[in-house]
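STRUCTURE:
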């Protein structure tokens, strides 16, 4: 398989990465749609690139990825990454990604990619929350995000999701503005809203910056809308912790 084929076309439309011939390194420009409202690296961009890098380097579906954000490159910055294969097994690969900007570490990720077993344990043991459909949902309007014309707002269409049984949770419907289907990397890009969930659980307006984010994936593509189920768990000294579950529209 040619190295360019190791990046899903939907992912390349989201973040235009330049992959090395051996697929063990790459680079991208932090362009419009890939930054926060303050013009710095949007966490979802780092998460998505981590997933894309692991998938390309291993040629396998990413099972989980945990990304730590170290610095905050600004709009227009050039970011390069390299992947280290920590262990290569028959079905599972352990990987580490280090991304740098101007020689300084921007983010680091560890994770695993794997090959599923046709007769392996498969099932879903929790149910998606019931919510009103996205088509009639109210657009989510965060003035701070919209005030930066080059923010992730260019990439994502967010709408308030009305949960039938909130139980302390909140939710958002999200789809890509280009209407392309979500891949695991696309889900990673869209799912960086735990700070918002923590703020809402605390009864506050606003959000915050991510220090880290861990994601676990069920491989696949195809859904247009994601339901982001947000739950703030606790906060201490200004640091918040929470969970996001990303559901396809059919649950």
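SEQUENCE:
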């Amino acid at each position: 398989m040619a190295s360019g084929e190791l990046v899903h076309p939907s992912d390349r439309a989201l973040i235009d990465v330049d992959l090395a011939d051996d697929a063990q390194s790459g680079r991208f420009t932090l362009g419009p749609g890939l930054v926060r409202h303050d013009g710095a690296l949007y966490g979802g961009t780092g998460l998505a690139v981590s997933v894309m890098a692991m998938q390309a380097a291993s040629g396998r579906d990413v099972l989980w990825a945990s990304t730590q954000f170290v610095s905050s490159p600004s709009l227009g910055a050039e970011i390069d990454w390299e992947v280290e294969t920590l262990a290569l097994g028959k079905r599972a690969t352990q990987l580490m990604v280090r991304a740098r900007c101007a020689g300084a570490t921007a983010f680091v990720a560890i994770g695993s990619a794997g090959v599923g077993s046709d007769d392996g344990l498969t099932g879903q043991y929790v149910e998606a929350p019931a919510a009103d459909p996205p088509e009639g949902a109210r657009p989510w309007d965060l003035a701070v995000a919209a005030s930066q014309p080059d923010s992730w707002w260019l990439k994502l269409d967010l709408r308030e999701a009305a949960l039938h049984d909130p139980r302390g949770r909140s939710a958002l419907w999200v789809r890509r503005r280009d209407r392309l289907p979500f891949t695991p990397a696309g889900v990673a890009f869209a799912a960086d809203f735990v700070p918002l969930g923590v703020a809402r659980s605390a009864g506050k307006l606003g959000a915050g910056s991510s220090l880290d984010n861990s994601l676990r994936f069920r491989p696949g593509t195809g859904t247009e809308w994601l339901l982001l189920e947000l739950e703030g768990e606790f906060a201490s000294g200004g640091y918040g912790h929470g969970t996001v579950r990303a559901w396809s529209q059919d649950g």
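REMARK: The longest strand covers residues 225-236.
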